[in-house]
Request: fold
Amino acid sequence: MSDAHVSLRDVTKVFPAANGGEGLHALGPVDLDLGKGEFFAVVGPSGCGKSTLLEVIAGLTPASAGTVEFEGWRVDADIPDGIGVVFQEDACFPWLSVEQNIAFGLRKTALAADAKQRRVRDVIDLMGLGDFAKSYPAQLSGGMRQRVCIARTLVTQPRLILLDEPFGALDQQTRLLMGDEVLRLWRQTGATVFLITHALDEATMLADRIAVMSARPGRLIDVVQTNWPRERDSRIVERAEFGAITARLWKTLREESLKTMALKGAGQAAEPA
Amino acid sequence: MSRITLYRVGVIAAAVLLLELLCYVRVIDRITMQPPHQIVRDLFVILASGKQNAAILKTLSNASIALSLAIVVGILAAVALHGYRTVRETLDPLFATYYAVPIFAFYPLLIVLFGLGDAPQIGIGFMLGVVAVIVNTLNGLDRVPRVLRKTARIQRLGTIETALKVALPCAAPYVLTGVKFAVAYSLIGIIGAEFIMSRGGMGYEISFAYNNFDNATMYPLILLILIVSISINATLSWWEKVLLARRGL
Reply:
């Protein structure tokens, strides 16, 4: 059993082929340890298996080989308690109000009704959603809806938060501001955060460590330590080291992205006209 | 009231006035049809006298049972079929051609199975309604975004909880469309069955009145069926509109 908060050993994912042929090797082998309270980001070219890696850690997809442990417990088909996931797509329940969406996260919690209500109210205030508690998701902007999803995750007080390109659908300014909010929440909750993103600046700004994934099958080919102070916000982009880290990430990622493009190009060329 | 609603009311009012006029100038004679105002007055007389109460109660309660069964069985079947792709693909041709089958042809078989009581009529109403609920619910379940199902898993909901708390609420507008069809089909099934073989119910009374040139009973009962069916459908449409409006649709 590892001392790490999250531990991955030789994790591999192969999606079986529909016709019984050779499957699609999407991921791995991946070895990774996340410390408790660490903010870890993963960047990689499109289709390299970033989201698959996140789903394996969450227990949403079983690994084909290798092991994933969270707090020393093996993650298999059952989703462990204490994990929250925020997806890139809008995952708000459109038939529920903001308040009901957030309270949905507490459905399985053995809390008294008033305690649940208090916790929902706290998270609504924390996320600045007070004026919209009775609104439906359709009445909110994309950024606000993503905040609702983050709030629904936070209300369960997860010890591990998995973020799958959570700001992918947002404009640049909103992304930076949402990044500030995520950093603030990370400090307040003390949770371990695992972020998947394709935006190098976002990863550099937010994470303590950043891993670069190779083209498919996705493996971790470089891990960069940012050495940022825990108290930080989006103004960190003004630092000289910010550019250096982003440049290092891009140097590695560029080669992998070119490989992916070459693969795609080859695939297109092979297709009959 | 919106302009479109005003137009709709205007079209109905114009049609009623036209009928009234055609009856008044005897283009439509009294043996064929009474003027609309007379039909409304006769309906009030029938309802006030209570002489058709038993028939009305029988039809509406049988239709309610058939509809309730169609909704419950239809939704349960759709949820179950959605999880079993092979079974669903096997049954797809049946659903696609179901309404090409004359369900009333099975009436003798239902009498053999259930006897001469209300059960065969309820069976016809149920059979007509259930597939509309299944097909529309499946359609709605197909449209539940994958991310919502993943969210349900992250929230550690089981299969039944996921269906009840996530999939069906998400598919609710489509389920309601199925229910709207089922209301009409169940009513058609029950009244049609009463026409063919029954000693009671609104269908039987309409048929009896028709054979005896009793327009004072036939048309008011037809009007009552229209009012009931349209009222239920209008309520469901309003509800559907509320659900869609919440989703910004």
Remarks:
- DSSP finds ten helices and no strands in chain B.
